[in-house]
């Protein structure tokens, strides 16, 4: 969800207003996603590196999570959305950790659409945590499976989620910035020159159309059928 700060600066507004508009764009995008055949949408809300932003901005972002969940959780639950938060719980304000747990618990029975919010998330941190947990079980004397791609993937925050097909980066930047590093191995990348607060059904449709044009080979030579999800 990149470009909130630039969107606000271009209008002479504080960055907090850009993040607030970013939440509106998120709502539009969630609503539109199932119409494009998307079963699972993952958004980057706060990275393990975002703690280095000024305290006021960090506090604004935490505040937005509080108000978003308070105002939208019941509606999301009713709409069949399952919420899953990816990221480290340690280090989060305790009320945010409690809000996250409640949101996950309250929507766990839903299976129409999955919304994953990466929050206090970093792709590297997630890989480190998965390897560390494996090692700790070993050191505790448990019988652990040998590390291979399946056992490592099973320890990640996204374990059990649908495979990642498409990564969209907004705002014209062209990098992954520590997002879903493992999961991105064979994802298609689409870079859109639009600031996140302006995002919505039209831009999402353009990203999906670009994805549909891609030929996915997964390192092989045969054409593979495209799966649509983000
Ligand atoms: C990147 O734009 C955006 C973020 C770091 C935060 C995104 C968060 C929200 C939209 C709201 C809170 C989240 C939830 C889940 C309710 P930037 O600030 O880096 O913008 P810039 O690159 O233009 O400075």
UniProtKB/TrEMBL annotation:
Mg(2+) binds at residues 2, 188. It is an enzyme of class 2 (transferase). Its cofactor is Mg(2+). Its EC number is 2.5.1.-. The keyword Manganese does not apply. Keywords: Magnesium, Metal-binding, Transferase. GO terms for molecular function: ditrans,polycis-undecaprenyl-diphosphate synthase [(2E,6E)-farnesyl-diphosphate specific] activity; magnesium ion binding. CDD domains: Cis_IPPS. Binds 2 magnesium ions per subunit. The active site is at 2, 50 (proton acceptor). Pfam families: Prenyltransf. InterPro entries: UPP_synth-like, UPP_synth-like_CS, UPP_synth-like_sf. Substrate binds at residues 3-7, 15, 19, 47-49, 51, 53, 169, 175-177. Belongs to the UPP synthase family. Catalyzes the condensation of isopentenyl diphosphate (IPP) with allylic pyrophosphates generating different type of terpenoids. HAMAP family: ISPT. NCBIfam families: uppS. Homodimer. This is Isoprenyl transferase.
């Amino acid at each position: 969800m990149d470009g909130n700060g630039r969107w606000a600066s271009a209008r002479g507004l504080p960055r907090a207003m850009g993040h607030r508009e970013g939440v509106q764009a998120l709502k539009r995008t969630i609503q539109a996603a199932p119409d494009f055949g998307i079963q699972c949408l993952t958004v980057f809300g706060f990275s393990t590196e975002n703690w280095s932003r000024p305290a006021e901005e960090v506090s604004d972002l935490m505040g937005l999570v509080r108000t978003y969940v308070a105002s939208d959780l019941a509606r999301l639950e009713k709409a069949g959305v399952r919420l899953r938060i990816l990221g480290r719980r340690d280090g989060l304000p305790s009320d945010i950790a409690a809000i996250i747990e409640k949101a996950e618990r309250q929507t766990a029975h839903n299976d129409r659409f999955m919304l994953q919010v990466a929050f206090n998330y970093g792709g590297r941190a997630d890989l480190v945590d998965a390897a560390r947990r494996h090692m700790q079980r070993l050191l505790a004397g448990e019988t652990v499976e040998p590390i291979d791609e399946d056992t490592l993937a099973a320890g990640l925050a996204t374990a059990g989620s649908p495979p990642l097909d498409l990564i969209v980066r907004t705002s014209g930047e062209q990098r992954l910035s520590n997002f879903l590093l493992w999961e991105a191995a064979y994802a298609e990348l689409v870079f859109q020159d639009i600031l996140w607060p302006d995002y919505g059904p039209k831009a999402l449709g353009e990203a999906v159309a670009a994805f549909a044009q891609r030929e996915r080979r997964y390192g092989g030579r045969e054409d593979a059928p495209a799966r649509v999800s983000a």
